[in-house]
Amino acid sequence: MSPVKYVVCVPDGCADEPHPDLDGRTPLEAAHMPVLDSLAGRSTVGRAAVIPDGMAPGSDIGNLAILGYDPHNYHTGRAPIEAAAIGLRLSPDQISFRCNLVTVDDQGVMIDFAGGHPEVDAAVDVLADLQRELGPGGDWGPAGVVEFHAGVQYRHIMVAPSSWLETDCAPPHDHTGRIAPNPVGVASAELCGLQEASRRVLARHPEVEANQIWLWGQGPQPVLPDFVQQHGVEAGMVTAVDLVKGLGVLTDMDVVAVEGANGWYDTNFEGKRDAALTALADGLDLFVIHVEATDEAGHAGDVAAKVKALEDWDSRILAGLVEGLDSMGRWRMLLLPDHATPLALRTHTCAAVPYLLVDSEVDGPGGIYSERGVADTEVVAGHQLMSRLVSVSS
Ligand SMILES: [Zn+2]
Fold first, then answer.
1. Which of 107, 112, 335, 387 is the most exposed place for a label (fewest CB within 10 A)?
2. CA 102 to CA 343: how far, in whole Å?
3. Span from the CA of 71 to the centroid of ligand 1 (angstroms)
4. What is this structure's pTM?
5. Which residues of the chain fall short of a pLDDT of 50?
């Protein structure tokens, strides 16, 4: 008998609320998703608290829960996960901050937390300049205490002393169109100073729309048991987002790179599907497919783009995925977002999200995969779904 194959599908932030532009439907209800509808018809659907009570609704927390790690026990901050994704190992006297390239106007209003989505090469040049002027050997105040490391697009990393930890830093995407509060706490002066000093560095980069850095999400490096140790199966993942990739690195998953996977609406959907099928055919037991497009559309408040990203999931991933999995023998799939990103709010919420669990050989009660479709079901803890997926008897 061939081993069971497992797939976890994560349309980032896809859960939403009824929207007037969709005649009061949610994007999941409005999108034409025949493959998902048919899977739902023979699945178990329900509601999952991917964001535990009292925690912030970030993709780090939600994806940690989806991978089957209780965020209460393992989460130390967002930036150290992204630092792991770019190969940084932090020592115990270091923490890392997320360093966004952002656009802030003269009144301090957060115009764009993504700094106009700079080109990767242009952003690398900016980070090199920040490192030269504000990093070791630079002329900023207590020179040499921070280091800048380039990530992707607008998402970068700053390493700082661990004594800076106890500072409240506002996630910039929660303040679009409003005055974003400055850091408050032990390192507020240093962090404000760095953000201010970065404006003169960015002023020399007219090719980049961003005009300063924003520092937040800090923490020490988390200690996570390997995925195979935690769940007893060998796993891989594909994602364009460092935050998710870092979780794969920290849990020793096989993180697969796919050309054209860019975290945006025009990402390589088919490439991600094929990466999953190839990895599973080559011997991995479980594969996580993460696509960011639905979350970006939620942040942009772009109703049509969010519906389109869901339809792309259906026709460009799920259709071929199910066909490919069927040729391998028995398989099980878990599908859920890491949080909701309602179009009307343009930011993440803590609301429980719909999940779908389907087994190719054992039909569940069936249902409708949407926010309303699962509204009457009991809420389960998000981090418990992974063990339900890999325990074939459930
Ligand atoms: Zn997310």
1. 107
2. 21
3. 14
4. 0.88
5. 394
Cα of 245 to ligand 1 centre, how many Å? 12
The pLDDT, as a whole number, for residue 394 is 42
Q: Compute, in angstroms, the gap from residue 10 CA to the centroid of ligand 1.
A: 9
Distance from the alpha carbon of residue 61 to the mean position of ligand 1, in angstroms: 9
Q: Residue 33 belongs to what domain range?
A: 5-74+224-390
Domain count, the chain: 2
Same domain flag for 241 and 370: yes
pLDDT of residue 393: 53
pLDDT for 262 equals 86
Domain end among 204, 219, 234: 219
Pair 244, 379 in one domain: yes
Q: How far does residue 243's CA lie from ligand 1's centre (Å)? A: 9
